[in-house]
Amino acid sequence: NGDLRVATDVTFGGIADLARDGDLLYVVDKDAHRLVAVNLGSSAAVVGGLTILPGEARTVCGAGQGAPGFGGDGVPPLNALLSAPQGVARDGTGLVITDTGNNRVRRFER
After folding, report:
1. Element (H or E) spanning 38, and its range?
2. Are 84 and 106 in contact, with CB atoms under 8 Å apart?
3. Mean pLDDT for the chain?
4. Alpha carbon distance 67, 110 (integer Å)
């Protein structure tokens, strides 16, 4: 379900990096092995096929539910597994995530 929460209720294991893309703030949570999107705007946004309403936060990449993993090529970002991600950056129409524990750089369309 993408771990949908009111943004002020989200807790992080260890924030490694942040990136802003318009009204969306992306937070790399390295200890929970996930990427969270926070909608800071006043209208709904879609990330990786998931709708995020204003004031909500949702895991958009990293299906490990707090556990590291490897996999996800060719699947929706939420179903991908990450291991100790360290960074995120915008890349035109998508995002690039450094999946440090797996020695990979992952990219997905926003």
Report:
1. strand 34-39
2. no
3. 90
4. 24
Q: For residue 24, give the H/E element and its range.
A: strand 24-29
Contacts of 27 (CB under 8 A, 6+ apart): 12, 15, 17, 18, 35, 36, 37, 38, 57
Residue 41 token pair: 């705007």
Task: Name which of 106, 104, 6 is nearest 52 in CA terms.
Answer: 6
87 Cβ neighbours under 8 A, 6+ residues apart: 16, 17, 28, 97, 98
pTM of the predicted model as reported, rounded to 2 decimal places: 0.92
Give residue 67's Cα distance to chain centre: 15
- CB 63 within 8 Å of CB 81: yes
Work out whether the CA dihedral 7, 63, 45, 30 comes out positive or negative: positive
Q: Give the tens place of pLDDT for each residue, 71-89.
A: 888 888 888 999 999 999 9
Closest to 37 (Cα-Cα) out of 49, 22, 52: 52
